[in-house]
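User: Fold this; tokens only.

Assistant: Input:
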Amino acid sequence: MNGKDLYLRLLRHVRPYTRIFALSLLGTVVAAATEPLIPALIKPLLDGSFVAKDPHTIRLMPLLLVAVFIVRGVAGFIGSVAMEWIAQRVVMDLRSAMFARLLMLPTRYFDAHSAGSLLSRLTYDVNQVMTAATQALVTLVKDGLAVIGLLGWMLYLNWRLSLMAFLIAPGIALIVRLVSRRLRRLSRELQNLMGDLTHVIDEMLQSHKVIKIFGGQDYEQRRFHRVNNRVRQFNLKLAAASEASGPLVQLLTVVALGAVIYFASLQSAANLITVGGFVSLLGAMAMLLAPIKRLTKINEQIQRGLAAAETIFALLDEPPEPDRGTHTLGRAQGAIQFRNLSHRYRDDGSPVIQQFNLDVRPGETIALVGPSGSGKTTLMALLPRFYEPETGDILLDGTPIRDLRLADLRANIAYVSQDIVLFNDTIAANIAYGAGFQASAEQLAHAAESAHALEFIRELPQGMETPVGENGAHLSGGQRQRIAIARALLKNAPILILDEATSALDTQSERKVQQALDTLRQGRTAFVIAHRLSTIENADRIVVLDRGCIVEIGTHHELLAHSGLYASLYQMQAHHK
């Protein structure tokens, strides 16, 4: 998308605020119109007051000057405040649209983009766009009209002298064009570096315990310094490219101004121009310097904004998670069939799941066991369609899940991951997440009690209203795990996925939660991923995976008697107890 199309698309986000935008432009136009009035008043002021000594002019001119500046101030205030209001609304709208799009994007997108780069788009990039879409436009209108008005007055006073000012236009256009290309390229690179900088900061904040325990402070400081220094260098290059255009344009303008002064002096000596006309012409040319300088500076803002707009619109144009299913689904019975399922994360990568086939009856508990990297978690990520399988199908109650509406499919699945995710809110809000925040206080308490979380919640000063901190930082690992289980219990879905759901619990807590999970699994189809094999002995069937393939399947006792991989893993754990 070229710069013109990008800018027009950007301005479409201003369209909902047309009235405020019109008010801002009106104020800007009125303020700009006062620019040529100032040199226009200088001519009668000098000729009428100091040369002709007209008493009427002596009284009138000061009042007119005061009136011009009052109008200019009021109009400029209205234009600036109205445009700032629009700018903030555009930023809010763009951030909301980007956030909404992120919520709809597939998991693969987040695998391919760091959290830091996405945060940079929502914070840094969108501010650059705001400047280009609003503030730069105000400067363009205000100073553009001021330049036109001043040039018009100059032409009116003396068109021969004024034509000299137009000789610098090709030079200014060439400078702006050359600088624009460099500014756009530098802006793109700076945005990428800002993403890298945010990524390093985000990793440090998320991993501060690991950094401290392994003494990685110096390494992280060096890593941050490298990226931070690159950001500084590119900001300096950007500033240098932007500032270089200003002096060059001003130099051309001053050369033209000097030529005008020289030839005007010759005309004054020949009585072809009055003192007031000469000073008015000179004042108009001098007043051209400031708006021309600002007009060359907005090129930097526009190029930064266009570079940012590229990344923002690239995100907004990302296709959402595929949801082409048309079949609606109420509460599922829970019969699941995996048919010739294969999956790999990269096109050039090795398969993580290979020709997986399994029929699961409603209400059956299936335990998934195998070495790390055998595909257990990947298989369960395919069931709620976090990823689309490379080949094969998954059927729920006889219907391929790709034919089901995503919302209906996921409404039937409760998920407890080994990586517990809690939101920086209260315990009640985190549990209520499982029911779309529609649960009563009694339902929340019942879910917490079933997960054996109510016993520690009651001991907290604020009970259910206790803030958990960022990702549950105010709670122990076992407490976080039990809140996540309570959230899943509250959802009361017919399909349950437990990915190391008791991994963070001590023996006593694990026994209590295991009892709750045994109750929860009754009448539900449950998939349990567990490295601690003692927790899955009562599973209806245990599926043993290795390199994405089923190598064994059976009950706990059947697999022990088979003396295969499961028996080897079980004996290894028993030996290390």
